[in-house]
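EI: anyone free to look at a 242-residue chain?
SC: sure, send it
EI:
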Amino acid sequence: MRIAHHSEHDPSLAWLGALLHSTDSAYPIGGFAHSGGLEGLTGLGRITSAEHLSEFLRHEITDTLQFVDLPLLYHSWLAATAQDEQSLVELDQLGEAARFGAEPRQASRRLGAQRWSLFNKLHGASLPPADSEWISALDAVIPHRHLCTVAGIEAAVLGVPAAAAMMAMAHQAVMMVAQASLKLIRVGQTSVQTLVAEMAMRFPEMVLGAMQIDLADIGTCLPRYDIGTAWHETAPARMFLS
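SC: here you go
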């Protein structure tokens, strides 16, 4: 099986093109229709400046990545590499349970479903027959298709190292918030990109930490974030889906 021949330490760069493609802002999974919870907190008046945005990235976004999304992606990569269908089902269910607010759950499902659809359309025909059969069987049993689960499966099948896939997801999460901030608060492009660069320096440590997290410890306690996303559900007007 092709996916069994790759490891997260594979020096080959054959996987890089597919990863760059899926990370590009033009990749149509709908990520920039979401604010990552930022709009709810701006609506409540809790984020109004670049300093507030930096705090949001270093706290809520970092914690969600390190203690939910990245470990789930990593464990999904491991399970997909072993073609462990039952573990993938359980990981996808854990991705559902680990999100307190309805909007973060729906956003993760929506983005994951679109990425799964694109993965099958773009790569399905080029997969070895055994991998294609396994993906088809998996398609029938994955309950929610959360983004982290799908990203882990996709990375394993395409031979993308786990750490690289995790770095890409962290980058996408930060860029989603960064792009939304330009529309929601008074902040300039340079300030935003400075914050993105500062966050990128933290990604390696976040990835290593996420790889050490046991499944029983996945989850966060972020009351401000949860209140903001709950408020956003019934906001009288909004620019973003979540």
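EI: Residues 50-81 form the longest helix (32 residues).
SC: 👍
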